[in-house]
Amino acid sequence: MKKTIVPFLVRLWLLPFVTVVAPLCRAQSPPTDKDIDATVWNETRLTERRQNFNIEIFLESRDARSIVQDNAYWVGRVHLYKGVHHVAEFPSSLARLSLPLMSRIVPAGFVAMVFPDLAGPDLDFYDWKYGGEQISGGVRCWVFDLRPKEATAYGAFVGRILVAEADQMIVRFEGTFTSNPKKHSPYLHFISVRAKSGFDGQWVPSNVYISEKDLARPINGSSELRARVMTWGFQQQALTEQAVAELHVEGPIQRRVDPFTAVRDPHEFDRAVEQMMVEWMTAQGLLARPGQTEAGLKGVVAGLVKKNNSSCSEIQVRVLLTTPLEGFTIGCTVVISKEMLNVASDDAVASLLLAPMLAHILLNHPNKPVYADMLQADADEVLKKLSFAGTAEDIQEDDRKGLELLVNSQSQGNLARMGSFLRSAAEYCRRMPALFLQPRLGNAIPACDGRGPIMKLIPLAPRRIEGVPAFSLGSRLILDPVTDIVQLLYPSQDQEPFQLTALDLNPRQFVDTPSPDPILPPDPLARRRAVSPIKW
Ligand SMILES: [Zn+2]
């Protein structure tokens, strides 16, 4: 019987919406000082228990007509320490700065927006003025206006805070930091939202959105700045370095790479080391843990790969949790960045973006060698050397074969959609170098150099198209900051291709659905849970 083919992206949109609506009609009494103390205590506990996490910052500067002039990107890992305000350390190869916009930005200043006050927003230093109740993202919240007391030093939070009544935890705050009124404030206005993980039901920082329309000191003539800060990888605290080390000394992976074991499959050794690399990148919070999104992408792969003569019996797809549009392969695993998936406006565009990597696998092109001992160094050292980018010649061949895969598997209408996407990308890429031109680990999408066989799709695109050629950044892909599982939502109608738009700024409650077909045989998360349960 013929299977009904429901496009992958449409199927994901039909997933039950993750927000759970709380009962709305209970009569509540106003919060007491005891409730505020409990909230402050929970906030302090959060900063103590979640000291290490990944962070990325994406910025756009805009001109007077709100047209993007430049953008910048920065990613790293934060380590908060007791007694010190905070310390941030970042793997240098991933944190390459994009000048000149980034030269004006202090990343640590964005880290500060993840918490209202790392010293604790307690009643000794802040006035908490109760402002009623509000339902936000389905969560019943107390609203407070916070103002530092007069004796509190500059740099304290001032603004509005939402506290989930049921959990007595801050789930959203909006405002800025105080500064000397006689000088220009060095601080931006921001909205910081949190997410309740599907793993342990705890609220953790998720997104910060900044939209500053009138900068006191314009950057290169741009007085408008938009920025998004994302945080994730909070589970990595449980996955201590020792746990990461355990990945390599016990379990089936170690047995498979033992050189003294008889190897029957000629590719088995390579596959095992590649699997180890995928697992290491997952443990670092660089790759999403596989869930329904990755399972759906395998359907897109199946639509393109009609005949597989490669050494890979099965091709997996994983999502790189960074923003620049890029893709690469690790052995039989295709990796695409989260925003590359997010901007893909339909299955045809998703196929277009996956095709060069699939071609690389089908052509049996060699990969950059990966060695098991590489992963025994410190994460920063590993990341400095890590690259999966192809040579210009390799990229050209992948492109040619990718076009062949697309033409053989898609209707003329779908090819025109792909052409529209490429044409739109080519229009934006010069103004958005951090998104299009600076891949960190792999290959950029082929639109910016205007060459390459896949660009033959552009003339197929009609001048006027229905819908948008590409979605906005962050418009529908959501990420559980604790489990690192991504989900795709139904996108809003209001889309500005490849640009930051106002995100959903409500707190979000996740219900994660792990992949039905797990890709990591010994899931480090599950194994760690079995060894040492996280207690709250
Ligand atoms: Zn190749």
Commentary on this structure:
The chain has 536 residues and is α+β, with helices and mostly antiparallel strands. It folds into 2 domains: 33-232, outer membrane lipoprotein receptor (LolB), chain A, CATH 2.50.20; 241-531, no CATH class. It is built from 14 helices and 17 strands. The strands form 3 sheets. Strands 1, 2, 3, 4, 5, 6, 7, 8, 9, 10 and 17 form an 11-stranded mixed sheet that branches. A 4-stranded mixed sheet has the order 11-13-12-14. The longest helix has 18 residues, at 392-409. The protein is globular, with a radius of gyration of 24 Å. Residues 1-7, 10-26, 82-87, 237-263 and 517-536 have low confidence and may be disordered. Bound molecules: zinc ion. Zinc ion (ZN) is lined by residues 360, 363, 365, 390, 394, 397-398.
